[in-house]
Amino acid sequence: MGIQKGLKAVHAYKDELQRRREAAEAGKKNWFKMDDGESVDIWFLQELDESAENYSEESGIGVFATEHVKPGKDNFNVKCVCSMDDEEACFGCEQHRKDWKAGWKGKNKLYINVLVKRKNGDQEVAVLSTSNGPKGTIAPLLIKYAENKNTVTDRWWNITRSGLKEETVYQPFVGEPSDEVKPADYADQLFDLETCYRVVPYAEQEAFFFPAAPRGEDSEEGSDGDVKASDSKTSASVDW
Ligand SMILES: [Zn+2]
After folding, report:
1. Which of 50, 53, 212, 224 is in the most buried spot, having the most CB atoms within 10 Å?
2. pLDDT, tens digit, for every residue of 175-205?
3. Ligand 1 mean position to 82 CA, how many Å?
4. Residue 240 belongs to some domain of the structure
5. Is residue 20 part of a domain?
6. CB atoms closer than 10 angstroms to residue 220
7. Domain containing 93 — which CATH number?
8. Domain coverage including residue 179
9. pTM for this predicted structure
10. 2 in a structural domain
11. Which residues are near ligand 1, the ion (C-beta closer than 5 Å)?
12. Taking the CA of residue 220 as centre, how many other CA atoms within 13 Å lie in the half-sphere pointing to its CB?
């Protein structure tokens, strides 16, 4: 974004930079996590589409991203967005074509801000990252709801988790429409979804996945919910 025309655009650009700076300084995102056996209520604070009935520009929309993850037990956070659509070339796709069993297949995920209400009454805004793949449960149902009801921000959803690691299942249950939460009240607490995934240009992807020298401590590592994959608390982003 090199050129801004008009004062409004200049101010908007400055505001945007400020917003990004603050988001970066704020650092860690609050990833949605739940324990095995836990049941929590969540209220989606963003729609899936700008045409939705309750869409607000301030809150924005959830983001779907297809990502390639470097295969290997400790590599679940070494991942970047598939560049095939943007650059017509993608290192992850190339690896997948070479060996379709190696684990390079792009995985589609939804990132979206939610209000979380625990059984003890605690409430927090968090980023839900959840699979939109064949085994995903929350995202595919949410898409159906968005298409049928033209909004997803009008009710509580109950999510129950059972199992650990690969056996983890998230069972969504959709509540009745309610006025209890006004998503606009939380618009200033939302996490910047653009910082939830990593975009690496094709030219740099091989070096990203296979760095010549060991990479230093990346501050971003450890802030991703995926890091907790081996913990009892696991984000919904773990692929199951
Ligand atoms: Zn790709």
Report:
1. 224
2. 999 999 999 999 999 999 999 999 999 999 9
3. 4
4. no
5. no
6. 12
7. 3.90.198.10
8. 29-235
9. 0.77
10. no
11. 82, 84, 90, 92-93, 106
12. 12
